[in-house]
Amino acid sequence: MNWLSAISIICATVAVSFGAIGPALAEGRAVAAAMDAIARQPESANTISRTLFVGLAMIETMAIYCLVIALLLLFANPLLK
Amino acid sequence: MNSPLAHPALFHLGPVPITAGVVVTWAIMTILVIGAKLATRNLSLHPGRLQAALELIVETLDSQIRDTMRVEPGPYRGFIGTLFAFIFIANWSTLIPGVEPPTAHLETDAALALLVFLAVIYYGVQAGGVRGYLGSFATPTPLMIPLNFIESLTRTFSLLVRLFGNVMSGVFVVGIVLSLAGLLVPIPLMALDLLTGAVQAYIFATLAMVFIASAVSESRDATEPQQPRTPS
Known about the structure:
The complex is a heterodimer of chains A (81) and B (232). Helices cover 85% and strands 0% of the residues of chain A. With 81 residues, chain A is mostly helical. By secondary structure, chain B is mainly alpha-helical. Chain B has six helices and two strands. In chain B, α1 (20-39) packs across α3 (77-92) and α4 runs antiparallel to α5 (145-181).
């Protein structure tokens, strides 16, 4: 195994692990805020949970971007061809 | 381990390679079209069981569109409903042994995101004309034109990557656990996949609704002159 593929594997791991930190914290805050809002106003739970789902999808995209970059590094690395 | 980005061709149709995902897509399309034809063949004012169930689905879809877009659902029901039905069935097609969901392939998701991109332009032009739609890029100031333009491209890209990443990672994780731990162990993960698949279909349809609604309302605002707001 040459050093380029070794660095690729390490970078893929680093991308996924560090890329998961931010979205995890953000999703935690979003869910906590939504719980708080539903506890205060249970009658608007429908609207809040729909908005929460869409917002979580937006936040989650950041982690998915990191996953895609990691997969590109592992499976479609242009430097290794 | 197979790469999740490359898919071997199953057979060739002339010069065009046909992968397994395309065949599954065709099967889902056939099932949806023939099922819809058969289910709506004998509609009556006194609905039977099947018609009542279908009406429940359409009612739910209508109320979702009305809540999210704040317009009457008529012109959007077909597009949004078909998007949701296709992605939902495609994500859950992993329940059939040997079938990999076509949404786990980058190409299918790219086609779906491209459809949403074109639908945003279509409904925007329909609401405010070409002038109104292009004018909506210059809101609130013409300084925002490059940013608005880039946004319309990146949100299509993120739509594609989100669906691909979620479904593909589910398939991938199940494959890894199966190869490490063996039979019957990945069943809880597959159940989680079903939940993710349903949520992702819902999110894809909701985001398509949000994008179309914003294009429609902005195009309409750009054509009509600003009316002075009367205090109510």
